[in-house]
Amino acid sequence: MDRRRLSRQELIRARSGDGFVGREGELAAFRANLARDPADPDFRFLHHLHGQGGVGKTSLVQRFEQLAHERGALTVYVDESAHSVPDAMAAISARLGRQGSPLKAFDKLLATYRERRHEAEAALAGPDEPGGEPPPSPGSMIVARAGVAGLGLIPGVGPFAGALDTTYVARGAERLRGRLGARLRSHDDVQLVLSPVEVLTPAFVRELGDAADAVPLLVLFFDTYEATGPLLDTWLRDVLFSDRYGLLAQNVVVVLAGRDALDRTCWADHLEHVTDVPLDAFTEAEARQFLSAKDITDPGTVDAILRLSGGLPVLVSTLAGSRPGAADAVDDPSDTAVERFLKWETDPVRREAALAAALPCHLDEDVYREAVDAQAADQFGWLCGLPFVTGRSGRWQYHEVVRTAMLRLQRRRSPRAWAERHGRLAEAARRWGQECAGDRGAGGCRRDERWRELRLGEIYHGLCADPRGFLPEALSEVTATAEHEPSAVRLVAETVRKAGEDADAPEVRDWGTRLTAALDGADGLVAVLTALLARPGLDLPEQVRIHRLRGREHRKAEAWQQALADFDRCLELAPDDVRGLVGRGLTYRYQRDFLSAAMDFLRARTREPGSVSAAFQFAEVMRLMGWHGGALAAFDRTLELDPRHAPAHGSRAVCLRRLGRCEEALAGLARAIELRPGYAWAMAERGMAYWAMGRYAEAFAEFDRALARNPEYGWAYGARGSLHLVTGRLDAALADLDTAVGHGAATEWTFARRAAAHLLRGAEAAALADCDRALAADRDGPPAFLLAMKAGCLRRAHRPDAAREAVEAAAGLAPDRPVVRYETAMLASADAGVQGAASAWETLRTATEESRPPGSSDPAGGARAAVVSRCALGDWDGARASAAGLLGDGTAWEHVADVEFGIRDLTAAWPERDATTSGELEAVRQLLLDRMDAAAAAGR
């Protein structure tokens, strides 16, 4: 580390080279700390400057930065333009890069994050994709919000902040992972979108350390920390004081500057490490020293400045800026301090330019030229040199204290000029926004940060120019932003509030306050839309749009009745609103009211034949109803409208598989994956197609591939676990099915498959518990095969009454299903003995004469009923013949094992059997065990 002593000339430059005067104690302490070895116990690595606005925090930060430069340090300045943790890291990386110390790996990861975030936003904003079997839960549409921050905020900031109800978290967080995983390229991408801070920060800390290793010190300055602290506190604390993100280099120094004290709930355990630097107004001695350094020594002038400024550094600096030579130059009869500041500028053109340039919240040269009169168009450089104007990254802004005073002066001095100037700025922002938009639609524009900034400028100036007249357009923009970019609604609401304050327009200010408060409340965006809907004079198209959007938000929260009520009202007002029809159809679909959904999608398709969304959703709901032939034709129509619609290719392939056309299904899924590389859902569906073809090794490979892309894809775990069960890998099956349940696939199908695995392992209690879970999860009513499976568990647990109740319920649904008749015969045998229940067994045998191997959805189906009924009747040749005929070569292990389970079940229920019967039962069982061994070997 460079420990050289500063020369006398360097000391002089450090103290006065930039005209900085005062704060000698603070400067001396900071300078002394920079000279210490970072390993010294007295070295202070965290400094906090705080005090009221205008007290000189930013000036002192800039002086600290200069001192650090003089020590050979790398320095980075971050202000309130960082709206999130990733923004802050990006700003630090960019500024280090400009100093020759780029964070290359972090920048690459950040670029990937931004790309994947936009992919996720597009996917979550669009129509729902198909799932596998069973259909995807509506909960997978939810983007949860943590506290008042969006997904990925504090820490983990992302693009979804402030838009959604906090109650969504409990309802769908795990299912969100599954949905994103099915759309993004890998598990890493899912983690990057859902938890960007957790993924980005380790790379950031590692490379920040590399940059720090090359210099004596690396100093990070966070100015305006009262604005960014709520976003950065937890993250910054963890970076500095924990190893959560890796170890931070010891020569990294952090300086915070803001109005407020540090949040004790965050920093309480670390305050002993914070160098507290409270700042107040100049003392009289400091103010006099400052004025003396500016060659202002006339006692009357000095006294006037002290009286007018109150010692506030920004005002002292401003009043001294034009070096008034006498007291009467300060003691002007004007009514405001601003008049006195500007009176010292003798050029009236510059004087008016300084006032006019205060109107925009932020300035660049283009905005400046629109704000000022033509005579001052070339004075931007002069303006940037004023003491109350600061600039960073091509944007300048007035100090808040000075700007507020100037705005008040102009508004009171000439309301007409105020309105005209703001109107001119609003029109310029509108014109630039149109140029920025190009041929992009409303959604594309609102996802573009530059366009959004211009639109916010238009809203701000429009409201300042004509608060009452422009308010409807501003509130309409809140609705439009809610539709296309919900995470940006807060920015619009805050712009409305600020315009109301600056224009002293109570109605505008109240709207802004109401909207921001609604976003912070429990109902989030729903409350915002409700407030917008309640305003008088709302035109019909806006009512339609708000009802449609509120219905969407209710649907995301799984508040089905509220969602339907809003969509119904939307369509009552506008029966031909296609997006309303699609929105209501999706609500019906997620409630599994497929027929009502199909009717809405068909109406939408009829009213707008070119709607890809309506065409796809109609085809999808037909698929979910099992109408695969009709769905196939409907997907063909979708692909005529959009040949590159990957979900349509994928769902069409599922229909082909269901129709037995597996080779064509594989081709369709390959096309879906080609269009969307890394499409985990399509990979898992390709596994299902290979499974249907009996190509188990390839099926496993596809499930593995899908899970490599997204290790949290619950449905793929369930499918792979089910295939493990089919091929006799019970331990692996249970492991995957457990994981599926833990990753958002807690469905009737998953629980039923896990119950079957438990049964074959002899874990009756676990099987019964999963039967109950499956029945609770099934939203279509209890299926007969599950009730029959539960009845068997209850019967073997010696609970005959409960078993009989379950069988009767199953018989009421499907009296002819083999599994139901099987359990009926077993219960009759429990009451009267196997021979006493001969009539029940005969009925079962007759019903199974035409049985074929059951599908995986009916694991206790025809084969078990056929073989076991013949054994119960003593028809041993018939039993062996049925086993041979129904369980030939190529039969899956699970189907053979299910029949073997039935033989064990019958044996346990037949204690009165004779030795011959026992021998015959064992012979049949041994035949089945041999076939199980062969099937297991083939499945590998």
TrEMBL record:
Q: Name one Pfam family in it.
A: TPR_16
Segments carrying the region annotation (Disordered) are 121-140
Keyword annotations for this protein? Repeat, TPR repeat
For this UniProt entry, what's an example GO CC term? cell outer membrane
Database matches in InterPro entries = P-loop_NTPase, TPR-like_helical_dom_sf, TPR_rpt, Ycf3
Q: Which SUPFAM superfamilies match?
A: P-loop containing nucleoside triphosphate hydrolases, TPR-like
Question: TPR repeats at which positions?
Answer: 544-577, 680-713
Q: Name one GO biological process term.
A: receptor-mediated virion attachment to host cell
- What this protein is called in its record is Uncharacterized protein
